[in-house]
Write a structure and sequence with these properties.
heterodimer; A: alpha+beta; Arc Repressor Mutant, subunit A; B: mainly alpha
Chain lengths: ~100, ~220
Amino acid sequence: MNNPIGNLNKLFDSRIRLGVMSVLMVNEEASFNDLKQLLEVTDGNLASHLNTLEENGFLKVHKGFVGRKTNTTYSITKAGEKAFKSHLAALENMIRFMQ
Amino acid sequence: MNEQQHLQTLSDIKRIMERSSRFISLSGLSGIWAGLSGLGGAWIACSWLNSYYAAWEARGGYSDADYATLRMRLMLLAASVLLVALAGGAYFTWRRARRNGLPIWDATSRKVLVNICIPLVTGGLFILGLIYNNQVSLIAPSCLVFYGLALVNASKYTLTDIRYLGLAEIVLGILNIFLVRRGIYFWTLGFGVLHIIYGMVMWWKYERKTREIMN
């Protein structure tokens, strides 16, 4: 039998990173401000978590402008979607395993 | 990490997914308010129509001036009812969002608004066209159909129950187009009665419990 913890992704231990992925699973894209508002985090904190996710190839970043203000939006990559789904499946498996 | 924590994580994920993709603060009281405004408006319109026909009878014929006045008054009335309904609706929804500590203006409420506005603005312009062409008997069914389509369209981004209200409005509008002389009744049913029923159901389903917890 497979080790049920095997598929849990270390990257998603952080609640903020998990939150970002959850938002992007159900929305085509989300702006930095949308994410900040939804997850109730500070700019610096969110930015560093977004960087980590981007470096791992889970996020695509689109830099744009609304008038003169920068407007950065994020969307999920195929790899990110796959990683998130297997993380979810692992969580569900563990719950089943323990019952 | 134990089982309890995993369950907590899963429910957090679900909550964030829902909250980020749907505007859940739409209050049932907004629906009841809109329905009451609709009923009030219909009642005033009825009394104006009655006195218009009474004057017609008394005079023994049609009068251009009377008709123009009635039309102008009804259009102003419709605009005021819309304004009152929207203002009250926005207030109750704002109040509910504030109680739950949720933002009222975010990506989800923007999506709801945009998706309501596309069919609604189309309908508004279409109805202006009907007035321009003097097809007044088609106004009531057009209002109902376009409003219903707007609600169905927005239901993807808010509590899905509103989809059924939208479908009911569309059915009423379609029935109305085959019974054009009964416009005021369909209008009252669609914008008054249906809104009140919908609002009460929504309030009962989603808001009653949170209120009990808070009191």
